[in-house]
Request: fold
Amino acid sequence: MPLALYALTAGAFGIGVTEFVIMGLLLNVSASLGVSIATAGLLISGYALGVVVGAPVLTVLTGRWPRKTVLIVLMAIFTLGNAACALAPSYGLLMAARVLTALAHGTFFGVGSVVATGLVARDRQASAIAVMFTGLTVANILGVPLGTWIGQQLGWRATFWAVALVGLLALAIIAVLVPKDSQPPEEADWRSDLRAILRTPVLLGLLMTVLGYAGVFAVFTYIAPMLTQISGFAPAAVSPILLVFGGGLVVGNLLGGRLADRNLLATVFGSLAALAIVLALMTPGLHGQVCAVALVGLLGAAGFATVAPLQMWVLSKATGATSLPSISVMPLAPGPEGR
Amino acid sequence: VIAHGPGLTFVPIAAALFPAAAMVVAFVAVQAGRGAALSQPSTQDVA
Reply:
């Protein structure tokens, strides 16, 4: 695989860390800024809002720009956003900085996928996209626990500085390694994309995606206070337990992809049912430490087993569209490597 | 409510309602006849 692909992997890693690391730092942010844990949790909603707004808007606005330039600008936004998070003196400004950071998220993966496929022969395009999304997977397995550990040792601002540094490195690597476009990009037909998204089967697929992830993130958002206040773990234990979540995520993603290739409908129902069961079991199960760790791993597995089937459901119903449907379902997805 | 221990305990079971609702939506989509092709191997669909 060309080295330029790994520049995209580095960017995906940074984005993955900044998206998820806040879950492990909620207690620190809450105490530091003098807000409740629930209010601190809204920083995750703010980031998601930035992704939802930024992905379609920036994709349309930068549609005619050279793709390398778009990637560099996006990583610059990402880096500045994380630096602003690290410097934010108040909760309101931290929220604004999180939203700014998130603007780059969806468009990076949309444009990055196009660039990745252009770097390799046609028969290796899926693998090229998978290499880019490996950054998100590694971010969940290693980046988030490491970022949480840094935050617990040096304060949450240090974590955002570290992520800003990753963004700066990714920007530099992209500037050096990603080749310039061989031809100007075609303008995306966003009206046709919008029409495709508004079809009832696509909307139902997106609604299923929203509901599925709502279940995962309603719990994962508060995973740190749950583990410390309900299960009785020390704050230092949160970081290694997040590793278990990351491991489950990888297994679930692979399993969901494989099963969806065999029978998509059964996998959609099966993975959502598994997720509902795991979540329901967490209410009594979190009171035992061994059980809590096992359930956190199962939450990662069941939650991300839904990714590939739901993504395939939406994409299979959004025929005729180019980029918007995929960036609509990609923001929280760890990628297609499981297919 | 969520910021304190007792409230946190019930977050997961409340969250379980979301994927359950997603299953209902999937059921509605299938019943509407729009999910009929999904039980086929779908790699080609995506491509």
